[in-house]
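Sharing a chain and its predicted structure for anyone who wants a worked example. Both blocks are below, sequence first, tokens second.
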Amino acid sequence: MQKSMLKKCTSYSLTHFFALSKTELEYIKKLTYPYCIVGLNYQKYKELSVTCRTKCLCFKNHSNPGYFMKLYGSYTSPYVRHCRVALLEAGLAFEFVETDFSGSAKKSPTQRVPFLEDGNQFFTDSSSIIKYLREKVGTKFCASAKELDDFCLVNSALDATTNLFFIERDGVQIADIPYLLRQAARIETILGELNAMELPVSAPYNDAHLRLACYMGWAKFRKRVDFTPFSNLENFFANANHYEIFRITTPG
């Protein structure tokens, strides 16, 4: 990338470009040239190498250089993390707005994160957000029925695991309620099914794989699942952490 195509970013803080955690900030500080692309249309952006895309802080909207979409969420949420990964992969400029329960209750009818504002567009679920972001830059979300089914399978385990986490945090004993025991059993059977799948050892990852990696990262962070019996999943997750964009969005 020639420096004539780049301009040092001075008018916006780094938080306007990436959903910056401490890990991400350290990553940005190590970059050879922390520049943002100014006035470069998307076709030209797509011609850049993956390395150059990753090194650029921002692809600014060509027709409105000061415009940013807003992603609302928390740094620990696996649903939000997947959206952050999708944004980083797409190279789209965005502002991350850290949002708690009270904030999401005011702004989203679902009363949860993530949600996304892009002009007059408003999305309230991570799946629709990711589909929107993929299509915005000409790529596909779950390109086949099988990929969509894998994505939904992971989502079932993720939803059950997060629900049990919040229910237990409210003082409810899972062992006392048959419905919650069925949720716990569902997690185990799904993990067994996922463990039997052929999983990639390196990027590029599809959205079912990214969803799985985000789920495992959160489950490990919250100490909700022991993945020791699932060696294939453990290997998959270890390999996913070599993918820079996934690694720098690690919660914590």
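Comments welcome. The longest helix spans residues 145-169.
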